[in-house]
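Notes, p. 3: input format for complexes.
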Amino acid sequence: MFYKGFSPYEISMLKVAVNGYGTIGRRVARAVSLQDDMQVVGVIKARPDYIARMLTDRFRLYAPDQERLKVFEQNGLHVEGDLSNLLDEAEVVIDCTPEGQGEKNRPVYLKSGVRAVFQGGEESSIADASFNAYANYDQSSGKSMVRVVSCNTTGLARTLSPLRDSLGLKRVNATLVRRATDQNDSSKGPINAIEPSLGFPSHHAPDLRTVLGDIDVESVAIKVPTTLMHVHSVEALLEKPASREDILSEWSGFRRILEISGKDGRKSTAQVMDMAREMGRDRSDLYEIAVWKESVHVNGNTLRYIQAIHQESDVVPENVDALRSMFEVADRETSINRTDSKLEIGRK
Ligand code: NAD
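Output follows (348 residues plus nicotinamide-adenine-dinucleotide):
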C-alpha cells in the first residue's frame, strides 16, 4: 500500500485533515495549526450549527458526504467539498468523529492512501499502534494507522510511565471517578446519581496496557454528575523502593505533569479549572495532568496518589506528537518540546 508523504524527505509542512469538529476535533485542529511543521488543510463538520458558522474564519469547511454538503448550502454556508475531496488534499487525517464512526471511516482512509490518527473511543484493533508520547512514542514510528488513547488512559500513562522507566511497576490499581459528560453537552447524565462500571476491570486497565506494556493493572470507574474533570486515585506497587520526594522529583522532569497543592486553595476540580482559566489558555484548557502533592504517599514499595484530568484537552498534544512519530520527522524529545512550546505547556 502506498501512503502519501511516506518518505520523511518529501515532507515540508505536513498536510493534516481533521474529520469531526467537536470537543476534541476543534482543539486538535487549533493545536496542529499552531505548529511550524504541519498545517490544517480542512475540517469536517457534520451539521450547519453555530460552531460551523464560527469555524469558517479559521479553517476550510468540508461536509462528510454530498447529501450533507447540500444541507450546509441550503443553510447558507459555503463548503469546499466532501470527505473524498478533503482526503485528496491531505497526507494524514485526524479522525475526531464520535465513538464507532472512526471504524466506519477507516476503509475510506485506506482506499485513499491517507494515513490516519484515531481517538480513544475506538477499539485498539482499529490501528497498528496505540499512542502516548511519554509511554511509547517510538512504537508509532512509520505506522499508517495510530490511535491516541482516551483521556483517562492518557492521564494514567502520563504519570505512570516515568515511574515504569525509573523505578519499575509491578502492579497498578486505579479507581477512576469520571465526569458525566462535557460542558457543551446537555443530553447525557447522570444528573443525580452515581453510576459504577459493572464489569471488572473497567475497560481502562486493558487500554492502559496498549501503551504501558504488559503490566498487571486493575481498574474500576465510577461516573458522577460533573462536567469539569475526571479524578483518579492510583495505587502502584513499585519494583524499587522510593521516597515520596523521589516520586515528586521524578515527575518534576515532565512538563505534562503538573504538581498542585490544596494548601493554596486548589482543593477540588472547581479550583483546578479556575486555575486553568487564570492561565489564559485557549478554551481554558489544562493539557497537563494535575497531581495533588499532598496525596502522594509511599508505604514500603506501595505508592498512592490522586490526580485530576481535563478530559477535553489532555489528549490534544498527544495527537500532534502522534503525527511526528508516524511520519518519523522528529524524535520523542524534539516533538514533545516543539508541541509544548507552541501550546505553552510548562509555562508558569
Ligand atoms: P463530539 O461529539 O464532541 O464531537 C464529534 C464531532 O463529530 C461532532 O461535531 C459531530 O457533529 C461530528 N460528526 C458526527 N458524525 C460525523 C461524521 N460522520 N463525519 C464527520 N463528523 C461527524 O465527540 P468528542 O468528545 O470530540 O469525541 C471524539 C472522539 O474523541 C471519540 O472517540 C471520543 O471517545 C474521544 N475522546 C473524547 C474525549 C472527551 O472527553 N470528550 C476525551 C478523549 C477522547
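The longest strand covers residues 169-179.
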